[in-house]
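User: quick one
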Amino acid sequence: MDDRSDDHDIEVEGGIHAYERKISGILDDGSVGFQQPLLARNRKNTTSQIAIVGANTCPIESLDYEYVFVFPNFTFLLFWKTETINEIRLLGRVAFCRVIYFQAFFAFAGCNLVLATAAASLCAFIAPAAAGSGIPEVKAYLNGIDAYSILAPSTLFVKIFGSIFGVAAGFVVGKEGPMVHTGACIANLLGQGGSRKYKLTWKWLRFFKNDRDRRDLITCGAAAGVAAAFRAPVGGVLFALEEAASWWRSALLWRTFFTTAVVAVVLRTLIELCRSGKCGLFGKGGLIMFDVNSGPVLYSTPDLLAVVFLGVVGGVLGSLYNYLVDIVLRTYALINERGPGFKVMLVMAVSILSSCCAFGLPWISQCTPCPIGSEGKCPSVGRSGIYKSFQCPPNHYNDLSSLLLNTNDDAIRSLFTSRSENEFQISTLAMFFVFVYCLGIITYGIAIPSGLFIPVILAGASYGRLVGRLLGPVSQLDVGLFSLLGAASFLGGTMRMTVSLCVILLELTNNLLMLPLVMLVLLISKTVADCFNKGVYDQIVTMKGLPYMEDHAEPYMRNLVAKDVVAGPLLSFSRVEKVGVIWQALKMTSHNGFPVIDEPPFTEASELCGIALRSHLLVLLQGKRFSKQKTTFGSQILRSCKARDFAKAGLGKGLKIDDLVISDEEMEMYVDLHPITNTSPYTVLETLSLAKAAILFRQLGLRHLCVVPKTPGRPPIVGILTRHDFMPEHVLGLYPHIDPLK
Amino acid sequence: MDDRSDDHDIEVEGGIHAYERKISGILDDGSVGFQQPLLARNRKNTTSQIAIVGANTCPIESLDYEYVFVFPNFTFLLFWKTETINEIRLLGRVAFCRVIYFQAFFAFAGCNLVLATAAASLCAFIAPAAAGSGIPEVKAYLNGIDAYSILAPSTLFVKIFGSIFGVAAGFVVGKEGPMVHTGACIANLLGQGGSRKYKLTWKWLRFFKNDRDRRDLITCGAAAGVAAAFRAPVGGVLFALEEAASWWRSALLWRTFFTTAVVAVVLRTLIELCRSGKCGLFGKGGLIMFDVNSGPVLYSTPDLLAVVFLGVVGGVLGSLYNYLVDIVLRTYALINERGPGFKVMLVMAVSILSSCCAFGLPWISQCTPCPIGSEGKCPSVGRSGIYKSFQCPPNHYNDLSSLLLNTNDDAIRSLFTSRSENEFQISTLAMFFVFVYCLGIITYGIAIPSGLFIPVILAGASYGRLVGRLLGPVSQLDVGLFSLLGAASFLGGTMRMTVSLCVILLELTNNLLMLPLVMLVLLISKTVADCFNKGVYDQIVTMKGLPYMEDHAEPYMRNLVAKDVVAGPLLSFSRVEKVGVIWQALKMTSHNGFPVIDEPPFTEASELCGIALRSHLLVLLQGKRFSKQKTTFGSQILRSCKARDFAKAGLGKGLKIDDLVISDEEMEMYVDLHPITNTSPYTVLETLSLAKAAILFRQLGLRHLCVVPKTPGRPPIVGILTRHDFMPEHVLGLYPHIDPLK
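Assistant: Done. Structure below.
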């Protein structure tokens, strides 16, 4: 029984003792394999970037319906800053390149190392939760899992600057995932009424202080992040719908659409202001980042077969990418858990490796003569331009260095262009593909904010262009289009989204005629990859041990009923309860919800009155509205309470049981729980199929589900189901003989 | 009590008696105002196209999870045929135009009248359900309301040919709504395993014979319809998501995406085949129907103000459109309910009016000199071309006739173009706007399949171009862009969609740079119009009296609890029940679900066993698996039954109680209901807030919700909630003193 009640303990805010007890229990057992979630591996769960960072179930319940004032999100500022700093670094680097090669290398690598160390230090020492993409955490939050400090202001700060330094340090990482996380953090800051710690509070924001509105805000924030990152407003809405959000309703669609419309208008205005070029690389490409609009697309059967081949191989490579990322993350977790110092050292090692590759590989590549008619642009030593001179003689350029020693955006743009078929040699494309594919995998686990979109798009685009070059004799399609389709196949193979990727690619490239082919490739690569493993974000959520509720029940749940998984023994309060009993219960357990029972003499027989939340009980105890007699005095309490006392506090800001000071005399007094009891909880009969209970729990976004007895003459409540009771680990732990696939 | 149990009666398949009793009850009351749903107005509910056509609640329940094989949908064939016949008619008409004006008019009007009569006769005599847009019915079906014959094969047939004749007859109607309905009908035909009546059955389709898969298929069909109509695959997915579907899950997103991808590829192939022009107008414009891709769009503050103005006025006009459509529909209902003959006459009258306007109005318009450099194209007498000669002297053209005497697609295309600013005079645009706006409203209610998209886009585009011409001195924006924004504002004002309209317009026009402006206009016009009334489809659903469940609970429901609205008296069966009792209950009531109670001696006390469905009870009675003793023999029954006996029959194909022949001796025997009882029904406590019960009912897509008592010592079930119990009419009928807004 002890083990089962521990499962409830994870739910507590700050229930670290029970939590560590659980972890050490698993470790002592010695049966933890490489396939276990990292939950069991990491003792110091707040320091490792890929460890579980708390499993504080967020109480996303069906609350009352109030309107959300939608807000514009200024994530694009991050975008602008990244571009600017990146540009400064490139300026320095390219200038050095012309002098002496070793000196240039040390300047280049040194510059990268300093930026990388800065990013890693921020991440390791200030906010470990800011490491990684952030999309899995946002996805988990929107599913109802409130991991520790994942949306805190410190995370926001580190995410912004860490991402700027990380991208500028020349890692193969993107800024898209971090921008989604940034958007969600800003939304959360608004949702909890600002931050009291950092003296940023607004009074009018208190209207958002409930779970439902906060969830809506964070969905809008995620949509705004994608909209700003890809300059794709419709793609942002669809991303929020398809990947991020777990619950959806038409009002939310309309709110995210409004948010991204504001982002689009603001972005458009800023790009207009930056038209003169005074903002550096920001605004390059206008609203459509990679405009590859080329005449009508004609294709025949061999072309279609080539596209199908591209999709199948892309799907296989994409799922292999996920598999390797998984292995690398688990390996890095062993290093990262040793402490922040080790994290920084790992980042430095990867940075040096990246610099060596980026500077060393172009030496292998042959010089290409400049195409005719490109005077002035080729060869270039400037900060942008796709014909980099590197070590080549005049009128020649090094095509590999054009890809490696450039911004990611420029590299993607030159891969997507169809201008000249022979711009990139086959060997160059192959080397670049291997470089990006491997380095992308190696880089993801380190302690910097790192998005996955850009590495995947880069690898996919070079893979597609490579296939296009190889299939040149067979297919009439342009290599630029092959490149786009390759990127689509990789995205489909790793992230497993469909509509949103399709629209994002459309908005990135402005090539509507490609739509049927892009849809085809996405479908094929997703289908192929789904045969092997899960999407990369789902995989990370699982690996972190976050109790994510899928939107369908597992097959084996059909053979169980609700009471089979209810944990016991159950702790419940009487309607008018002794203060000491409540204090004891709150102190000893870490449950978040307690059933309240109406008992004689107030009613004829025992009845379920409802559920009281721990946070509300704490507020009630703090208010010391006690009575010496065991009588109902709920109306008095109601008069003396204010609704805002019970508003949801910011993350980790709520009252703790240890904050309360209650005298021995008060311990003997009574308190009427009726005013704070939710008298209308959702209930299921104990004989309801577990699969149906799981669907109910998931669809309505519950935190607690009461199980009531079917037969008369028993206590009015059998137990409470929480998120953890539906997790496969828990259910299969209780019934190890069940076949999980039946 | 009688009134309340009647509410359950509506649920029956074929419960016409109870239904008419209810209707006449309302009529006798004399209190039916103009604002009542038509449910109360129409006695002959199967003949009027806009009457309620039955309110047979579809049992969309949470069933087991099986995979759907997705299917390609060939709705685009309709598209092709419409274009072809339309073209034939235009050929005849234009040839006549050159001879004598009266003769030409009679040929034109006669041709229209014949086509209109054909469409109306099909609709009035064969399938009245095929009239109108069809989108509201599909939307209601996906919400769980299975209206009579709305997806039957006869409806499909009439929808296809009626739509072809209707569009060809020169009415201001679109083919988009009918194509969505066609897609849904085809999907339904596949979903019920073909049609036995028309000897079209496939064995492998029996896997779809459950509600969940059929619902998914019909969603895919609706998406395919939009994808084929607008050649907008992504727009189709989003339309299905935003407007049609009530429940959504990621697997469905992926299936609709697959369906529309197949539609896109097939369309692309057919357009490629038709490149030589041998398919008439089909394929004109390629995959992007109205390609208005024009250089970079620049706009300043006055332009933005002009766009805001356009959006606000568009929203007001859009909601006025909805209001007028509502009034016209209610007026026509009075005519249509008199019989099919009156319906046809109404259609003929509207057809003559349309012909007169289309032929008469251009005479008012002045002739315009042909623009320089348009030799050979201007003036034209051919079937397409935007410079129609009409009555004008050589080298002049009549711009109003270019809009009126053309296909709808060509008219939209010429309104969207920016080629020459002065192509259309202000007076022309104003006349065309009034013509389309008024005739669109007058035409919608008549007995032909008629879509709303095209009239709204036409009216919006002419309105936008008119505003653009008027604001010419203030704004630098192109009038073609104004026209597009005007169309967006009208669409937003009438249909109230956001993301899907945005993507559809994007895919129609291939102008990604307009995206921020289109989003802005859609948001403004939707917000403005929402202040006045509901979207046009929601309005039609309400007017037809279909019990549509909104995805949020009404405010006043928070003040009620579940038992407040439960209808009584409750009829329940014992686990082993006498055949006569069951037969009696099925005969006397029209309930669709009956609670089954476990009683002594089989259990210690009365317990809720589950719910048995009427259709399953009928199958059980027909099988005559009876016993003389009152004992449990469920396992014997299970052995002798096959699962497919209980598969869901096609619409209206199920067993009726009158089909059963049961002897008096058998009536005294017993039957064990356990094998057919759903022993795991969803339950709520009687004290659960009605708002929460409504959310549960809606989110899980239930058909029956059991209400169980809270206090011990009472029968184990209080009642059953169905869709009708949550309808505002029912709740406010029971509690007239409640303020519906609180």
